Amino acid sequence: MSVPLKMKAIGFTQSLAITEQGSLVEFETNLPELKEHDLLVKVSATSINPADAKIRIRNAKDKVLEQPKVLGYDAVGEVVAKGQDVEGFEIGDRVYYAGDVTRMGANAEYQAVDYRITSQAPKSLSDQAAAVMPLATLTAWEALFDRLRVRPEEKKSLLIIGGAGGVGSITIQLASQLTNLTVIATASRPETEQWVRDMGADHVVNHRKLVESVREQGIQHVDYIFNVADTKGHWESMVELIAPQGMISSIVEFDGGINLSALQGKSAGFVWELMFTRSLFNTDDIQKQQDILFQTANLIDAGRIKSTLTTTLHDFSVETLKEAHQRIESSASIGKTAIKY
Questions:
Q1: Are β-strands 157-161 and 182-186 bridged in parallel, bridged antiparallel, or unpaired?
Q2: What's the N-to-C CA distance of the chain in angstroms?
Q3: N or C: where does the chain have the smaller number of CB atoms within 10 Å of the terminal CB?
Q4: Adjacent-strand bridge partners of 170
């Protein structure tokens, strides 16, 4: 495949409401230069994540960026070039990845990505079905096994707050398929209740009356809590529900403080999960993300994990990406939305 010198990309220079004219802009730019560990990927599909909206809203509040920032933290595409130190990939390989938040994202025709956080894409999925998987899967896997340190053989309980979204949906599946945990997930509408049951949840509870709803299931305390919805808003409920010596993890940052000392009596712990940590700090175990994505692709192709794709938007354009941002900002979506280029 011949690779052009220029490409189309879509980004933002100001933090504006997504409905405003200049909230996202199309522009032409040079293809990214490859570092020694990089793959150059021709992007065929991406998906929308809360991270896209958060970065767009926060990163240029009181300034205008000299160069547009390109979002997009999930992608599927074809390898068209590679750096000198890349191992295990060939030109023409179909890959999937979440990428690195410090670099140009997937809202472009081509993207450079470190091969150590990239894997061969699941063979059984379409581009759009595969594109919704990397960021949510990495987040869920890391939360379960790196942050909460769940041991697959232990017969304990896990509460997932925000079960019907992208990360919650994958966490339910991974916990159901790879552990002996009893999985409790929150949902508050008939359609989201059915969705989390289809994902594999053993119990469904209502986040609006969380403590009462969990205990109505005959469960007094839970050993692990993973919050993907609202850390501060559910803090007191989590403190009440967490078991002595239990662990809480969250991906949702917040303003102001929480009473961390409330966990002291139970000797319970709290730990953050940020999927971008390994790439941000080039950690010694950065290649673990490649391994997670590789194992997930095998689980998908074996029929044990299913894609959380619920909506596909078509065409790589400002209008399509704006619609995707509006969907993620509604906070009412089930599963994930993909954009097929």
A1: parallel
A2: 17
A3: N
A4: none
Spatial neighbors of 155 by CB under 8 A, at least 6 apart, are 180, 181, 182
Model confidence at 117, pLDDT cuts 50, 70, 90, reads very high
> Which residue's entry shows tokens 């809202």?
107
> CA-to-CA distance for 296 and 123, rounded, in angstroms?
11
Task: Provide the greatest CA pair distance for the chain.
Answer: 63
180 C-beta neighbours (distance < 10 Å), count = 13
Give the integer Cα–Cα distance in Å for 242 and 224: 7
Query: In the predicted model, is pLDDT for residue 54 greater than 70?
Result: yes
Q: pLDDT digits over 148-180, tens only?
A: 999 999 999 999 999 999 999 999 999 999 999
The pLDDT of residue 213 = 97
Dist CA 228 CA 162 (whole Å): 5
> What's CA 31's distance to the chain center, in Å?
26
